[in-house]
Request: fold
Amino acid sequence: MIRFLKTLVFLALISVSSLTLGQNSMISIKFIGNCGIYMTDGNTDIYIDFPYKSGAHHYMEYDSSELDSVKNNPVFIFTHKHSDHYSGKLVRSLAKKLDGKIYSPWNIKKLLKSGDELTDFSIEAFKTKHRFSVNHYSYLITWHNKRIYISGDTGNAETIASLNNIDWAFMPVWLLTDANRKGINLKNICNMLAIYHIGPGDHITKKDNDDSIKLLDKQGEIITIPY
Ligand SMILES: [Zn+2]
Reply:
C-alpha cells in the first residue's frame, strides 16, 4: 500500500512539473488595440506600440485597466512616435513606476543590445517608410527560436519581402495591399499573418477557409506560439 501511495505521489509530481513546463513553453501575445500588443513568455513582459493615446486619430480606444495591468520591469518597444502608437507621458510614468525600459527609433542601438539582457531573445530593426514620420522602424524579433515580425505603420512591402521563415507577422492591411500590388506573396514568407491597426471605418474581410490570416478586430484577443 505504501509503495502504491509513493508511486501515486511520484506520478502527481511528474504531472505537476510537466504542467509547469508546458505553461512556460509558449509566447502569448495579447492584442490591446491599434498596433499595441503585449507579449510574454512568462518571464519577460514586452509591450509594443503601447501605451498609445487612447482614441488618437479616431483609432481604437482602450480601457484604463490596460495601463493598470502592465507588469513589473516592462520592456516597451515603439515603431514610431505618432500618438496612435505612442504616448510619451504614459510610457514614462509607467516605466518610472514599474522600473521599465523604453526603446524606440530614438535609441535604436540600445534596443539592438536588449537581447543581451533578455533570455533567448534578439531583435533586428529595419528602417521603413511611413508618411509624416521621419523615424519609423519595423522589427524582427527572434524569441525562443520563433520569428515574429512587427511591421508597425509602414505601407512598403519590400522589407518583409526580403525576409523568410517568419512564424507570425503583424501588419496593417495596407501592407498586404502593397504586397499584392507588387506581386509579393507574403504567404511564402510568413506562416501566419495578423492584420492589426484596423480602423472603425475599415471593413476588412477574409476568406472563411483562410486559416493563415488572423484579423485583429477584437481587442483582448490572445495568440499563443508554443515553442
Ligand atoms: Zn498609426
